[in-house]
Design goal:
The structure is a single chain. About 65% of the residues lie in helices and about 10% in strands. By secondary structure, the chain is α+β, with helices and mostly antiparallel strands. The longest helix has 26 residues, at about 100-125. The mean pLDDT is about 95.
């Protein structure tokens, strides 16, 4: 997948190095075991159309380029040029199909849907 920021085209790559970059900022520790949650965070950000999360995802996914856009370049792009909703949907589709992320994305989306259904059920039960 490619995006153009400030007239420069950048390749977005959602492979293992992308996951590693996301995991640097998003980890959970329990019982002395650290688990990377970068893909989980990315999916949540994309589903919620979170522009700050989207900027982080783009930054991590441009690792493959010799020249990378700055965080400020990405934020200006999202503020002024990008269709954030459309871009989130496109990147989520890429994550659903990328070999390194597709299984985890499927699990995260399934878990999010189940949590949403439980919350709706609890809300209905409390209103009765």
């Amino acid at each position: 997948m490619q995006i153009t920021i400030n007239g420069k085209s950048y390749e977005l790559n959602f492979g293992i190095y992308f996951i590693k970059q996301m995991n640097i900022k998003h980890t959970v520790e329990s019982g002395g075991v650290t688990q990377g949650m970068g893909v989980n965070q990315a999916v949540a950000s994309l589903v919620m159309y979170d522009p700050v999360g989207l900027a982080e995802i783009i930054q991590a996914a441009t690792w493959i380029n010799k020249e990378k856009p700055t965080q400020l370049d990405i934020m200006n792009y999202l503020d002024k040029e990008a269709d954030v909703k459309k871009l989130c949907d496109s990147i989520l589709k890429e994550l659903e199909n990328a070999n390194s992320t597709k299984a985890q994305v499927k699990n995260v989306l399934r878990t999010m849907k189940a949590a949403q259904q439980r919350a709706m059920k609890m809300s209905l039960e409390q209103s009765v």
